[in-house]
Amino acid sequence: xxxxxxxxxxxxxxxxxxxxxxxxxxxxxxxxxxxxxxxxxxxxxxxxxxxxxxxxxxxxxxxxxxxxxxxxxxxxxxxxxxxxxxxxxxxxxxxxxxxxxxxxxxxxxxxxxxxxxxxxxxxxxxxxxxxxxxxxxxxxxxxxxxxxxxxxxxxxxxxxxxxxxxxxxxxxxxxxxxxxxxxxxxxxxxxxxxxxxxxxxxxxxxxxxxxxxxxxxxxxxxxxxxxxxxxxxxxxxxxxxxxxxxxxxxxxxxxxxxxxxxxxxxxxxxxxxxxxxxxxxxxxxxxxxxxxxxxxxxxxxxxxxxxxxxxxxxxxxxxxxxxxxxxxxxxxxxxxxxxxxxxxxxxxxxxxxxxxxxxxxxxxxxxxxxxxxxxxxx
Length: 378
Ligand SMILES: [Zn+2]
Known about the structure:
Blueprint: H1 10-21, E1 28-32, H2 39-51, H3 65-70, E2 78-81, H4 100-109, H5 115-122, H6 133-144, E3 153-158, H7 165-176, E4 182-188, H8 196-199, E5 203-206, H9 212-219, H10 227-237, H11 241-270, H12 273-284, H13 288-310, H14 323-332, H15 341-356, H16 361-376
Parallel strand pairs: 1-4, 1-5, 2-3, 3-4
The protein binds zinc ion.
Zinc ion is lined by residues 52-54, 60-61, 64, 66-67.
């Protein structure tokens, strides 16, 4: 991971790089910030820089043997510890090493992900992960070995607040009397839950929320929404990259649902079967989750338009529609009335049920469209 992959935090990056250049790297450091701020990404980028054989002015070189391995997180002197729990396959005494391949792909895919995503990724169900006593024995064993290839052995501990008491005490001992050339990077979201004696031995890097400009520039052009909408979302996400991406995906999904829904309603009303088949082709290659989301969206639009019809297009207070939805509905609501609303809703519900049960989506959506052609003209 490079410093340039970490969004914002320019001042902290510079400060970290300077400690390497001045040869005064603290052997135990805490990176602490809220979820989605990039603390873990920053710690990994720092470790890569420290181990790089040809570090550049503002980033590691990316081409030396060390960087090559760091970029895949497979460097033999880079160790990770993170909370884990039992799963279907690992039923007893789980430790980080049991999940190392999952961990690598999880982080390489998106280092901003949080605990919830991690537990879901490794399939621990509703259990909370911990860093156990067994893990601390592993840590001691790993650090008692000499560095294989680098000057430094690096141990990155993600969420040290999840350590049980015994493990925390063992870690404290190692940090107090560290093996030579060992670098501990603790990455915490809740430092108040770490042993104060551990905290007092670490240099603390407070990682603030990502600044709005950096977040905006990173996300610009990656989603099909306007710059104004993006600005609003960045404001809402409050320096949390993870949340910004979630919000934008949802927004993008809503826009797509609106487009697909209005399209099929117009085509059904006009009875344009050939174009309906094209529409069905488009929807059938979307994933099941997207298809379900579209059907749920359609049901909401049908409901809102029926309400609008009952109110004869007035009483907008009870109607929950966005600007462009309201604009479309002005012309659409007369077609959703008490003589067809139940059947239409039932057809969408039925389609939803079939999609959930893994039916052939092409057949489901074509069937649905053909029914709507009839019902919309009732
Ligand atoms: Zn390098």
